[in-house]
Every structure is written in C-alpha cells, then in structure tokens.
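Thread: S-adenosylmethionine complex, take 2
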Amino acid sequence: MENPESTWFGEKNVSPEEKTNNVIGVFDSVADRYDLMNDIMSGGIHRLWKDRFVRMIRPRATLDGRSIDYLDVAGGTGDIAFRIRRKVGSGANITLCDLNDNMLIKGRSRAIDKGWFNDFNWITGNAESLPIPDSSIDIYTIAFGLRNVTHIDTALKEAYRVLRPGGKFFCLEFSHVRLPMLARAYDTYSYAFIPFMGEKITQDRESYQYLVESIRKFPTQKKLMQRIKEAGFEKASYTNFSAGIAAVHIGTKL
Ligand code: SAM
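Output below.
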C-alpha cells in the first residue's frame, strides 16, 4: 500500500508520478524568489533554525586523515551546504543533490557570489534513487526536503544505503506544534498569510497553498522517528525547534 503522503499534493488526490511532477513545478515556479520568500514567511527564523541544525552536525573537514563526505539532499539554493562550508573551510567534500535544476542553478550563482567557484558538487537527482554509490557518505542532510518527497520511506532507505557505517542522517523539517494555543495561532497565520504573500511576491498562490498543506500531511515527530528506525537507523531521536513548528531528526547507521 502507498503511504498516504505519496498520493496527496496538498489537499488534492494525485498519482505518485503526478506528485513528483507537481513538486518540480512548484520549485520551478518559486526558485527565483525562494530565498526572499523564506525570509518573509518566517521573519528570518529559518536562518536561526538552519544555523542550529548545522551546529548539531558539528561539521569538521577531516576524519582519520581523510576528507569527510557531506551530502545535502534537496539542497536547493544551498543554505545548508553553505553553512557547512563556512564551518569546515575547503577541506571537505560537499555534494548537493536536488530534483530541480532551477533551484540548483540559483544555488550555483549564490555560491559564485560568495567566491566559491569550485567548492561543491552539484547533482540533479531524486532522494528516492540517489546517483551516489553505496556507503560513500559520512553525513547526510535534508532540510525542508523530505516533506516534498513522494515516497518518504524509499528516501530514508536511500539515505541509509549511501551512508558509511558510523555515518549520520540529519533531517530538518516542518513538524507539528506541541502547544494547542500556539498551534491555533500558527494555523491561522499559515493558512491566511503564507498563500497571500506567495501570491503577492511570486504571483503563485497555489505553490504556497501546497507548502502549508504539505506541512499538515507530514508525519508527526514520533511517527517519523519510527520510520527512520524502520529504514535501518539506530539511535534515532528528534529535537523540536520553536515548540515543534520545525524538528530535527537524527539517525545513525551502525
Ligand atoms: N534545503 C534547502 C533549504 O533548506 O533552503 C531547500 C529546501 S526547498 C523547501 C525543497 C527542495 O526539495 C527543493 O529544492 C526541491 O526541488 C527539492 N526536492 C523535492 N523533492 C525532491 C526529491 N524527491 N529529491 C530531491 N530533491 C527534492
């Protein structure tokens, strides 16, 4: 049986293939204004979440005398990979993989603006079938990406496959608010403000409507942790950010 999220595109019932194509369409449409919209929608808080997420990884350049291999899946315009790069300098191998070429093109031009001409490998690929060899990655990150993946469990198994023994999985994603009062305010804010701003700034209300609805469909913290364990990971855990508006899930491949 399909997982429920693989046949939902926001509130619509679609086939898994349609879902993947629709997600590509969403990010084609928003790529140019993606970074600006993130700042507006979150009042800049996404930057603090991403900073904290990358601190949790404790990035370093080398391990036992060799460069560490980082893979940032759904890497988009580079926010996570750039933060890792800032912490580790030029000594690590950092690969970004994303389904959407336009997001990666935007990311490359941002990297060049920062003077990073050759610091990353940029790969177009699906989190469900990564073009990456088995057991070749030390740190796998995915930020605000897993929610958009059609088959979440397939992506989790792929993460497990590409990690080396001892490698770690880190996922930052919108999640479920734990405080009822805050949950109500957050619902009102997200259903009214986010699609409205999406329309004003990107002339695309539907993509931002999808964003809000996809958050509601995403598994709860505990369910996602269970699914990470089922993919093979040990020591699975999660940490809520901002009372559960977002959460970081971690797993280790032993
Ligand atoms: N990680 C970046 C960040 O935190 O700013 C970008 C997040 S953006 C909300 C989601 C990204 O996931 C988009 O770039 C989209 O193309 C990518 N994506 C969606 N489904 C994907 C999949 N199945 N495989 C790889 N990337 C995917």
